[in-house]
Amino acid sequence: MSYLIELRHFKYFLAVAEELHYRKAAEKLNISQPGLSRQIKQMEEILEVDLFVRSKRKVTLTAAGEYLKGEVEFILNHLEVTKKQLKYVSQGDFGEVRIGFLGSAMQELIPKLLINLKDKFPGIRTSLEEVSNNAQINALLKDRLDMGFVRLSRVPDGFNIKPVYEDTFSVVLPEQYPLSSQNFKDVSQLSKENFILFSQDYSPLYYDTIMSICEDAGFTPKVSHKSVHAHTIFKLVENNLGVAIVPTSLQYGFQMKVKFIELKNIPQKAVLSMVWKEDNRNPALRHCVNLLLDEASNAN
Amino acid sequence: MSYLIELRHFKYFLAVAEELHYRKAAEKLNISQPGLSRQIKQMEEILEVDLFVRSKRKVTLTAAGEYLKGEVEFILNHLEVTKKQLKYVSQGDFGEVRIGFLGSAMQELIPKLLINLKDKFPGIRTSLEEVSNNAQINALLKDRLDMGFVRLSRVPDGFNIKPVYEDTFSVVLPEQYPLSSQNFKDVSQLSKENFILFSQDYSPLYYDTIMSICEDAGFTPKVSHKSVHAHTIFKLVENNLGVAIVPTSLQYGFQMKVKFIELKNIPQKAVLSMVWKEDNRNPALRHCVNLLLDEASNAN
DNA sequence: GGTAATTAATAACTATGAGTTATCTAATAG
DNA sequence: CTATTAGATAACTCATAGTTATTAATTACC
Lengths: 300, 300
What we know:
The structure is a homodimer.
Chain A: H1 7-19, H2 22-29, H3 33-47, E1 52-55, E2 58-61, H4 63-90, E3 95-101, H5 109-120, E4 124-130, H6 133-141, E5 147-150, E6 159-167, E7 169-174, E8 194-198, H7 204-216, E9 222-227, H8 230-238, E10 244-247, E11 258-263, E12 270-277, H9 283-299
Chain A binds a DNA duplex through residues 1-2, 8, 21-23, 31-39, 41, 54, 56-59.
InterPro entries (chains A, B): LysR_HTH_N, LysR_subst-bd, WH-like_DNA-bd_sf, WH_DNA-bd_sf
Domain HTH lysR-type (chains A, B): 5-62
Protein name (chains A, B): LysR family transcriptional regulator
């Protein structure tokens, strides 16, 4: 009997936890089914914990197995990252920062950050991925991202969050709509319109904020469509299917037959925040975070 | 040649990185020096990175090695934590204990309990709520709390009660009051004063105890005010509206212009007891209770 | 209800590679 | 210039991961 857990065990465990099927998992791992069975069993013996329930013909995770699955995902992933970073370090580079972002952060903030980063730390590589708010938090948890840009007011324990960009909101109207910055007074003029918004799941904060803007103007908006893509929202507005309220910076980067009217005189702002995990060990991340913090403080 | 890194490699690597001496590291690991040498070398081959510089007779870490050391420390540690947590999860030790308490328990006992709990059962979450004696009993009955800290002598059937903290009483006087620990003899010196007490509903035991203290001193106190908050009581004393007798530990945690004189020589003590329902099924509660019982018995 | 198919576990075997002992080379200390 | 101490090399062994073959048990299907 072996006395120690090895990474092999974790890899095997993860395969079974994902497939919930020994033969298929074994196939995926390119080993035989009995070998896999024995390794998993051994693992349970070493850890002194049941990980799977093999009742009848079904394999299911126990509570402990469920927990371990999450941890193993994290550990194996962290290991991959470490290996990669190790190469960079050995070459005298700083490594890679994996950044997640909402589409609306791409208009201005991210490009600026990247240019700055390239300038000050040419050794730091970046990878960029457009991900929703919640998916970013998840990815950060599992160490699949180092840093995110989200529109959230609160984040789980262990996370740092820092507002980095404040934007006004703008009303988005079809081009031929009989309102313009000249005769526009406030949002209440749109109280009879259908609203097209980013879906609540995608960004609860955004959703609540829009609601509060309308409430302040004395009405509850009829929401006819929800989407997760600015492009879709604009397309719907273009086709007279409703009006929208979005962060102003989204007006750049799209070619649509819609017009923007900036809501300069309302207190609500679209706040984009940088999030990262407190205990992230990526040395390149520190530089990246500091760069943005410096910038934010200089801007004031 | 092996193709994959295993945890063994990490453990070996860490030993060498710490000792910077193969033979000593091998000894520590209870393996032979050549075996260790080969594993480290293999590790370098797999990772395709030099981790040590073996110049002459000295072993030193490369930059990459230095980086990896930090990561390996993190990973191995994370692993230990995970293994521990896993046991807890499998035993159902994850979960929440809802604790009710009197304000006066917060000064010392509760913080200590929480620290201990966090240490021994990091998976157990706690929720804390300041509730009066009777409300705690009610909440326990309704299963809105798992555990309470009360000053009561008796509890209904089906409840367990266990004294966990014994405190002396102290007289609370306005700062400029013409009595101090020097010239204070006993409570009878206060027989003409108005008394400010915790209300009878809030804690019958407390109320009766104060009465018995005064009776023992040969007088029946005039009670001018009753309150459920220590803060209020102290505020009233501060403003010369009367004197009070409270558990001594309440003197910490408030900033007031009042002075405490401890009643060391009377038999009455302020007893804080832990209460919980006999048939509570919360497995996390068991741990919590045992922790406190152990502690109480160790203290004796 | 009985046969076929599919599951994971068990048993017996094999072969890879971790770890062993013995030895070598090289550097410093005294 | 030996004696000592370092890590690397070489040859061996042995534990065990992973193999094939089989069993046991459940479900699916006619």
